[in-house]
Write a structure and sequence with these properties.
4 helices, alpha+beta, 180 residues
Length: 180
Amino acid sequence: MSNSSIAVYPKTTAQDVVGRLTQINPDWRLSVNARKFDYDADILIASHAHSVAVWASGNARGQDHELQTEIGRHSSHPWLRILFQDHVAWEYLLYQNGLVIDRFMPLPSMWGLDKPELGQPSLLASIWGVPEKTISKYLREWNAKTRGRKAFWWRDQWKFGQFEQGFDFLRALTGIEFPS
């Protein structure tokens, strides 16, 4: 999963995303709402209610940003790109009309920065229609105080300091369960 990403689009359907991806490259093998991770798929698509997640794999790996941006370009809503960096951290960029309007970077030292960027949970909550309290605890700096703790001990699988915590965050934001 080194340097991979998942894009999440609110207020859309898997069918809309499949249609767009088929236009981009009709030869890609798409896996939609699989319960198990499909290692043969080029793109994994997971959906729940009115959110769709797109994860490039296989032959589409390395083209993830371009295809995510292309799907986002056809959306009238902001969309989120979750980045999994070198098995070290997860981060996000929130896009609208091709511009980054919010970002989360819990490890500023990873990029030579002085301060973390902790995102705007109220903005995400309003876009996805979830209570802010369901996601705000994830958006914290990773430091000695938070490392080894979970945002929500009773429902989360991953801790602060683990890049996989991004999956817990995405599940809280969208309701999407990712394949194992």
